[in-house]
Amino acid sequence: MLQLPNRPRRLRSSPVLRAMLRETTLRPEQLILPLFVSEKITTPAPITSMPGVFQLPLDCVVAEACAAVEAGVKAFLIFGIPQKKDDRATGAHAGDGIVQRAVRLLKKELPECLIITDVCLCEFMSHGHCGIVDKSQRVENDSSVELLVKTAVSHARAGADIVAPSDMMDGRIGAIREALDEAGFSNTPIMSYAAKFCSAFYGPFRNAAESAPQFGDRRTYQMDPANAEEALREVGLDLDQGADIVMVKPGLPYLDIVRRVKEEFRVPTAVYNVSGEFAAIKAAAQNGWLDERAAVMEMMTAFRRAGADLIITYWAKDVARWLKE
Question: CB burial class (10 A; 0-12, 13-18, 19+) of residue 289?
Fold first, then answer.
């Protein structure tokens, strides 16, 4: 027999022992479920590229949230799809906009839940970009920030617990923080999409949110996937401007960024397990190529192991239920 002074396998010999020594934990409280609320429909509309995910009419959003709460999820990220769009994203900051109405309804019916709002303009812009577009089809930064500020304040007035700017315009965190404070919402946290990369994994989401750009792409404001040092600079800038939570998006291709952000800044860090990641595993599972539950739980553990405190995922309800079993 081999004479080995150290045998790591000794500590893997039983389920109880493995559980006792597990370094990374996953809890339902760490999960955030995205919800797509639409003014354009009267019954839930399935998103074909995201099996099991639906656009919801306003009068169905509470039932969907209640089902998630029963599973153990208590935090939601709200995206809105308006009846009409224009080139000033009017519906994004309207007091009676779809996001604002959804927030008021959810806070009334589920006051114990955490309601986070995506602060962006793409779903409300006729051209699908995340800001105002000039005559040469370039996205203007500062004028776009003005609309983002109005949108964030309107969400806070509606009762949002956290606002989450996802646009990647320069300076928007500082401007939103100042405006929230002036409007009496100094206790409303900002979850910044601080390192949001221009990714191929957003396709199904753009179908779900009806937010695909009508021309060009988002490479002038979302980050180059090759740039890690720039990601750290972006996170640092947002923290300096008042971000309370920072986010890395997407998740799986950027676990190294999650780890570096957590080690560098030691602040609450979120990761977005995006639609393309969801669709890829769903498709593989439906073809019998992998075990969906096992793959998802391994992926969620990887997010936590990399340093994510919070995980935004379309599997939130499933994961919470699996954790109870």
Answer: exposed
